[in-house]
Amino acid sequence: MAQGCLKCLKYTMCAANFLCFICGVAVLGFGAFMTANLRMAALTPTLARFNLANILLVSGIVITCLSFLGFLGALKENRCLLLTFFLLLFFLMLMELTVACLLLVYEKEITTLIETDLTQGLEKVKEKRTNSTHVTSEWDLVQEQMNCCGVNGTADWGPIVPPSCCVKDCGGWRPEYRKEGCLAKLKTWFEDNFLTTGIFVIVLCIVEVLGMCFAMTLFCHISRSGLGYKL
């Protein structure tokens, strides 16, 4: 009975890690696609290296490597691989919790940093628009999608307001522009999705804890059976 349960646990862990591996490859591919097709340097020059595409790339690599390690360790019943998988998963969970705590503690400082970076990106786009009014950038896409204008409002653009800020009578003498800034819209979006993000982090931690429990259970069984390093 115990052997049957352990075999079931082994193949369940293999199947779960295989699915995670496929998901990791998909995330990695999507991140590579976004890196090749989307550039956020004009929006946030300093934070461009931490944009969504780079985060997806790193996440895809981590998920792929961890899931492959867990799959191979469970399939081969290799004690060394299972212990490595357990430790890496444990450190990953600690890092996620640390980042979440830092985001909560330094919320105001992060908001100020984002505002400064957005202002710098907008100033660079304004310099380009001085020579040509047909210059387009990531700002146009963000302003149209989020229904906002500038960092804190239309005044951020000065005398040359881009067409992406216009909502009415755009070709007339007195066009109507979006009044709310993109920074306020971003704050509202994060506040609206705060609960969803918290639930996602909790579920992710539960999955990681289950993965560590499965890995340690197999590790202990293999240690008792004396098959710790068979390949």
Please tell me about this protein's structure:
This protein has a domain at 2-108 and 210-225. Helices cover 71% and strands 2% of the residues. It has 7 helices and 2 strands, in the order H-H-H-H-H-E-E-H-H. It has helices at 2-37, 52-76, 79-105, 107-131, 138-146, 182-192, 194-225; strands at 166-168, 176-177. It has a two-stranded antiparallel sheet with strand order 1-2. Helix 3 (79-105) packs antiparallel against helix 7 (194-225). The radius of gyration is 24 Å and the shape is elongated. It starts with a helix and ends in a 6-residue tail after the last helix. The relative contact order is 0.13.
Helix/strand-derived category reads mainly alpha
Strand line-up across the major sheet: 1-2
Rg (C-alpha, Å): 24 Å
Distance between the termini: 25 Å
Concise structural overview:
The chain has helices at 2-37, 52-76, 79-105, 107-131, 138-146, 182-192, 194-225, and strands spanning 166-168, 176-177.
